[in-house]
Design brief:
Layout lengths: L1 E7 L4 H12 L4 E7 L4 E6 L4 H10 L3 E3 L6 H27 L17 H18 L2 H11 L5 H28 L3 H8 L4 H25 L1 H9 L3 E6 L2 E6 L8 E4 L8 E7 L1 E4 L1 H4 L5 E3 L4 E2 L4 E2 L3 E7 L5 H14 L6 H27 L4 H14 L2 H21 L2 E3 L2 H7 L4 E5 H5 L5 E7 L4 H12 L5 H12 L8 E6 L3 E6 L2 E6 L1 H6 L12 E7 L2 E9 L6 H10 L3 E5 L4 H11 L3 E3 L4 H13 L4 E5 L5 H6 L2 E5 L4 H6 L2 E3 L5 H36 L3 H4 L5 H20 L10 H5 L2 E8 L4 H12 L4 E7 L4 E6 L5 H10 L3 E5 L1
Parallel strand pairs: 15-22, 15-24, 22-23, 24-25, 25-26
Antiparallel strand pairs: 1-3, 1-4, 2-3, 5-6, 5-7, 7-13, 8-11, 8-13, 9-10, 9-12, 14-26, 16-21, 17-18, 18-19, 19-20, 20-21, 27-29, 27-30, 28-29
Helix pairs in contact: 1-2, 3-4, 3-8, 4-6, 4-7, 4-8, 5-6, 6-7, 6-8, 6-13, 8-27, 9-11, 11-14, 12-13, 12-14, 13-25, 13-27, 14-25, 14-27, 15-25, 17-18, 20-25, 25-27
């Protein structure tokens, strides 16, 4: 059982480690993972009550909140108030404490030792509101010390409290000196109050946390947008009357009415009407898809027309809910590269506190005054930044998974995202992966009689067959308006063909061997695809070629994978002849054919045993064993339940180019994490010795506590901003792949509606050599991209057979 909780009070990676440790200490908890960016705790356990988890987390000093965590705006508003209040008092405090050094006006009285007491008390009065406004550092950091679980707040609290305590001690020393008339001592103490250091530490750290919170808010935008996709209400038919109810109250079986521009609240199947559906927010596909009765629709998509549909999946069972859960789980998971940072963060705060005490003690032993040693110790405490280390990995993972989701690429875990970037071999399934997965008629060759006669006989013979090739022939005949009759005395010979009685005459359909077995003479013919021979009696009527078309972006995808240095292998259960043909078209050198689904898993294992890091790409159904065996499994297909379970990546658009995008994004994320970790380590490696005064003797370099606080604040902000660069990742096809295609614009008469548009795009896309076809109804044009030569006569024939007329071809 997996449960997600919101946790309040966490400020850095040390906090997340303490919360994880506390949750894991509960008996029955198998795993616990914290997402620091979203303040989420994901617990996988047996039947454990929420109170048990809450009690464990509270014992670590944090609080468990049921339900969704507060939105970014509600978290930022209190910080804004703290900032305004802090700087309202910090500015006059800095003017009072430091202004006389710069000759600022109205501060002459501060030079008089007789006013030292008033000068010191004035600074204390201005500091107290800042301390009160930022008391969170004390209420969080000090108790953490007593629990032996110090965090970043502990460092800030100790540093500012040390400066504040020394300032209060200095006030007593000033009044003591004034009481005995020692003006020199009173003046000296008034110059070393450190109230401004305490106030600056609190104020500047709060600025950093505010900027960090705003930046982190941008990393979670993708998840929030996904959650907000589903509309809050639904219009349901109840006893023939339309009733608007909250979307969460929709039940399975309800009939829902959708208007143009409305969001679809749940998953279901259209019962009446048709409309183009905007899937862009869910899959990244920019072109609306027309849905008709019997087609499925998903929550979170937008209807551009009117229809009714029956609810089939509601609440947490919808595709959108599954996607949101996948993205959130990926964000909560930890990448292997981040484990080093976690280990360092676990000992970081105690180590820094030890360095601070040791640095102060060493400088005092070297003869420096206490104020110098105190300044050194405070600087070490506040410049150290466990946040930068803790954020280096998760913030990059969150931005990357969010960006991937916006592109229609679902990533299951941080580990798979990292592993994909290290892969060296990729296995591509053929059917449904590099090909569309649906056989289509590519060519009709008439040898006797008319083309219509051939199609009528072919469709009639195949009408009783369930074979995919038979369905392709029947669909083609229906789209071309061919009337056919139901076959009688149907008989099928597996692996050969079928026979049936049509109008009292025996007709045959099958391969060359089947024709020869029935004594039908063959006419040699070269076709693009699998040839199906059709005969009436002993007369050969013609040949219909059927092929599983290669997806438009498959060739560019293979070239892109090869450019990334991956060894591309075509893995298929199809024959060597078909596999080699597809491989030649895609420029794939390595082919493994005639492999059963169960044997594909063995091929993956063999490559892994040879030392390769393997990615397997399949349709997520019959390829599930090999997807699970591979280092990274990528399911290409519209997010089926099986795909979501078996694969590490799911490509919602069924676009092979997204394979390239997923691997490029993985590598970009890995680079970003390494950059973040490098700069976080370098910052602390240089910053702590600098604050400790290591460079004071040779170079005279010494950090003030205020500057150290500013540096600490900006370090974590820089890590977050670097990770945010992943938001600009693009997945566009390279220019070279577009230049390889030719383009023609067809002006077509007779197109009137969306149905016409779909029909023309479909028939044009079926022509061998056509990569894509896009119709503009208003302009009455079809823009066709070609990977080979297609004659104008072929375009004219196909369009006229569909009931339209070509006016011009440019």
């Amino acid at each position: 059982m997996k449960k997600t909780y919101s946790v309040s009070g966490m400020t850095c990676s040390a906090c997340s480690l303490h919360v994880e440790k506390a949750a894991k200490s509960v008996e029955g908890v198998r795993s616990a993972s914290v997402n620091l960016l979203e303040n989420r705790l994901v617990v996988e356990s047996d039947d454990i009550s929420d109170d048990q988890i809450r009690q464990a987390v509270r014992s670590a000093g944090y609080d468990l909140v049921m339900g969704e965590p507060p939105r970014e705006g509600s978290l930022l508003r209190p910080m804004q108030i703290r900032l305004i209040l802090s700087f309202a008092f910090l500015i006059p405090l800095m003017y009072l404490s430091m202004g006389h050094m710069w000759g600022f006006p109205l501060l002459q009285w501060t030079h008089d030792p007789a006013n030292a007491g008033i000068f010191a008390l004035s600074q204390l009065v201005l500091t107290i509101p800042i301390v009160i406004a930022n008391n969170k550092y004390y209420t969080s950091g000090i108790p953490a010390l007593f629990r032996r679980a110090p965090n970043m707040d502990s460092l800030v609290a100790i540093g500012s409290l040390a400066a504040l305590t020394y300032g209060v001690y200095a006030i007593y020393a000033i009044f003591s000196a004034l009481s005995i008339g020692d003006m020199t001592a009173a003046g000296m103490w008034s110059m070393d109050l450190y109230f401004e250091s305490a106030a600056m530490i609190l104020s500047l750290v709060t600025i950093g946390k505010y900027l960090e919170a705003r930046s982190k808010g941008k990393t979670t935008e993708a998840v929030r947008k996904l959650i907000d996709l589903a509309p809050k209400t639904a219009t349901v038919l109840r006893s023939g009357v339309e009733v608007v109810i909250p979307a969460e109250q929709v039940a399975v079986g309800d009939v829902i009415v959708v208007r143009p521009g409305a969001g679809i609240p749940v998953d279901g199947t259209i019962t009446e009407g048709s409309a183009p559906i905007d899937l862009s927010a869910l899959t990244g596909e920019s072109i609306p898809v027309v849905k008709n009765p019997g087609d499925s629709v998903s929550a979170g998509t937008i209807s551009l027309g009117s229809f009714t549909f029956r609810a089939e999946k509601v609440g947490e069972d919808t595709t959108l809910a599954a996607i949101v859960e996948l993205v959130q789980n990926a964000n909560a998971s930890k990448a292997p590269i981040g484990k080093l940072a976690d280990k360092v963060s676990g000992i970081f705060v105690p180590l820094v506190m030890s360095i601070a005490v040791l640095s102060g003690a060493v400088w005092m032993l070297l003869g420096e005054p206490f104020t110098f040693a105190l300044s050194i110790a405070i600087s070490v405490l506040v410049i150290s930044c466990p946040c930068a280390l803790g954020l280096a990995t998760p913030v990059a993972i969150m931005v990357a998974t969010g960006k991937a989701a916006s592109l229609g690429i679902l990533i299951k875990s941080a580990e798979s995202l990292e592993t994909a970037g290290r892969a060296d071999t990729i296995l591509l399934d053929k059917t449904g992966t590099v090909t569309i997965g649906k056989p289509e008629v590519t060519e009709v060759i008439t040898l006797s009689g008319t083309r219509e006669d051939l199609l009528a006989v072919a469709a009639s013979v195949e009408s009783a067959s369930e074979h995919p090739l038979s369905k392709a022939v029947i669909t083609y005949a229906e789209e071309n308006g061919i009337t056919f009759v139901k076959a009688q005395d149907f008989s099928a010979v597996p692996g050969r063909g079928v026979s049936a009685s049509i109008s009292g005459k025996i007709c045959y359909a099958g391969n060359a061997a089947f024709m020869e077995e029935n004594g039908i003479p063959l006419t040699p013919a070269s076709v693009n695809g699998t040839p199906l021979y059709f005969a009436s009696g002993n007369e050969l009527l013609g040949i219909i070629s059927v092929a599983d078309k290669i997806r438009p972006t498959s060739k560019a995808a293979v070239a892109g994978l090869q450019a990334l240095g991956l060894d591309v292998v075509l893995l298929t259960g199809d024959t060597h002849t078909v596999a080699d043909s597809v491989a030649r078209q895609l420029s794939i050198k390595n082919v493994i054919a005639e492999v059963m689904p169960a044997e594909k898993e063995g091929q993956v294992r063999t490559l892994q045993e040879a030392g390769h890091h393997v990615i397997m790409v399949g349709d997520g159904i019959n390829d599930s064993p090999s997807l699970a065996r591979a280092d990274v499994g990528i399911a290409i297909g519209a997010g089926s339940d099986i795909a979501l379970e078996s694969a590490d990546f799911v490509l919602m658009k069924s676009d092979p180019w997204d394979i390239v995008s997923a691997i490029r994004l993985s590598r970009a994320t890995l680079r970003n994490i390494k950059q973040n970790l490098f700069w976080a380590f370098i910052y602390n490696t240089i910053g702590i010795p600098l604050a400790a005064g290591v460079f004071f003797v040779p170079f005279g370099w010494k950090l003030s506590p205020g500057f150290a606080a500013l540096a600490m604040s900006l370090s974590s902000v820089c890590v977050v901003l670097n990770a945010l660069r992943l938001r600009f990742f693009t997945s566009a096809l390279p220019t070279t792949s577009k230049e390889e295609t030719m383009k023609k614009v067809l002006t077509i008469d007779g197109m009137m509606c969306e149905h016409c548009k779909m029909t023309v795009e479909k028939v044009l896309s079926r022509i061998p050599g056509v990569v894509s076809a896009r119709v503009d109804i208003k302009a009455k044009t079809a823009t066709v991209e070609l990977s080979g030569n297609v004659s104008d006569e072929e375009f004219t024939r196909v369009i006229s057979e569909s009931g339209y007329t070509i006016l011009s071809i440019n």
